[in-house]
Structure to design on (303 residues):
C-alpha cells in the first residue's frame, strides 16, 4: 500500500535524487581533491543505492513499477543486475524457506553434503567468511561467485535478459567514471566497499531455527548504518510487512515491539556496535546448516 493518495513516497524519491547527487559529487568533484575520500563517499552512495533498489523491488516509491525500476536499474555497484536481485530477493521472501541452502537464494548456509565435499582450503575460506570481518572482506567476492555460478548453470531466458539489461545499463556508469577524475581502479574499490558495507546488514539477518517466523533478526540500531540500510535492520518487521516503506518501519516496530519479539523468539541485538564487538572475528553460525533435515521434514505433507 502506498503512503498517500497520490502514490508518491516523497522521502524515498528525495533520497534517490540525493544519492545520485552524492555519487556524482564523489566521482566528479571529490576525486580531484582526494581519491581516498572519493572512494569512501562513493562506496556509501553505492550501498545506499542498493538499499533503494530493495525498496523499488517491493513497489516503492511510485505506483508505476516500470518507472520505479528505470530509476534504479543501472547498478552503481557494477556487479549485481537489478533484475536478478529483484527475482532472487522476492524468492527469498518465501519465509518458509528462509536459510534453506537450496530454496533460499540468500542463505549463507551450506547443506551437509555440500560442506563435506569441499576441500580443506575452501572450508577455511567459508569459516573465515562466517566472521563479520571475513564477511566484509571476502563476502562480496564469494557471494558474486556463487551467484554467477548458479546463473551459468541454469541460464533461463529471464536470467539471460537480466544480465543483458545489466550490461547495457552499466555502460553509461563506466563511461561516466572514465570521463571523471576518479581512476577506474578506485571506482572498482568503491564498488566492492559498497557491497562490503551491505554485508554488515546481511551477516546475521537470518538464523537457523525450527520455526520460520523466528529466523529474522531485529537490530535496534538508529544510527548511520540503520539509515544506510533503510531500517532493514528491523528485519522481522520487514518480512512481516514487506510493502511498508522504509521510513514507516521504526514506528511500526515501536507500536508492536512485544508482538514482533514474540514472533521471532527474541532474536534481537541492541546495535550494530554490539554485533561488531561479538562477531568481528568470531563466527556466529556454523557453515553447515544445523537444522536442515528437520526443516525439510516439517515442510513434507502428511502421509
Amino acid at each position: 500500500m502506498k503512503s498517500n493518495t497520490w502514490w508518491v513516497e516523497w522521502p524515498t524519491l528525495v533520497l534517490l535524487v540525493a544519492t545520485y547527487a552524492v555519487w556524482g559529487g564523489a566521482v566528479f568533484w571529490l576525486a580531484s581533491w582526494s581519491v581516498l575520500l572519493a572512494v569512501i563517499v562513493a562506496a556509501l552512495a553505492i550501498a545506499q543505492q542498493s538499499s533503494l533498489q530493495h525498496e523499488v523491488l517491493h513497489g516503492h516509491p511510485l505506483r508505476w513499477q516500470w518507472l520505479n525500476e528505470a530509476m534504479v536499474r543501472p547498478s552503481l555497484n557494477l556487479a549485481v543486475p537489478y533484475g536478478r536481485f529483484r527475482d532472487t530477493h522476492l524468492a527469498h521472501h518465501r519465509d518458509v524457506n528462509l536459510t534453506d541452502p537450496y530454496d533460499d537464494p540468500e542463505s549463507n548456509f551450506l547443506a551437509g553434503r555440500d560442506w563435506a565435499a569441499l576441500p580443506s582450503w575452501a572450508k577455511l575460506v567459508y569459516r573465515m567468511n562466517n566472521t563479520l570481518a571475513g564477511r566484509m572482506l571476502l563476502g562480496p567476492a564469494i557471494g558474486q561467485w556463487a551467484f554467477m555460478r548458479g546463473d551459468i548453470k541454469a541460464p533461463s531466458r529471464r536470467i539471460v535478459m537480466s544480465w543483458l539489461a545489466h550490461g547495457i545499463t552499466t555502460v553509461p556508469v563506466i563511461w561516466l567514471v572514465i570521463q571523471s577524475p576518479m581512476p577506474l581502479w578506485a571506482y572498482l574499490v568503491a564498488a566492492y566497499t559498497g557491497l562490503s558495507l551491505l554485508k554488515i546488514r546481511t551477516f546475521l539477518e537470518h538464523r537457523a531455527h525450527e520455526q520460520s517466523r523466528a529466523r529474522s533478526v531485529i537490530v535496534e540500531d538508529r544510527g548511520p548504518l540503520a539509515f544506510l540500510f533503510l531500517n532493514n535492520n528491523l528485519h522481522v518487521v520487514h518480512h512481516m510487512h514487506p510493502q511498508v516503506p522504509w521510513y514507516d518501519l521504526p514506528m511500526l516496530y515501536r507500536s508492536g515491539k512485544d508482538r514482533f519479539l514474540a514472533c521471532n523468539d527474541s532474536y534481537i541485538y541492541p546495535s550494530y556496535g554490539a554485533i561488531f564487538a561479538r562477531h568481528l572475528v568470531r563466527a556466529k553460525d556454523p557453515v553447515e546448516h544445523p537444522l536442515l533435515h528437520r526443516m525439510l521434514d516439517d515442510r513434507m505433507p502428511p502421509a
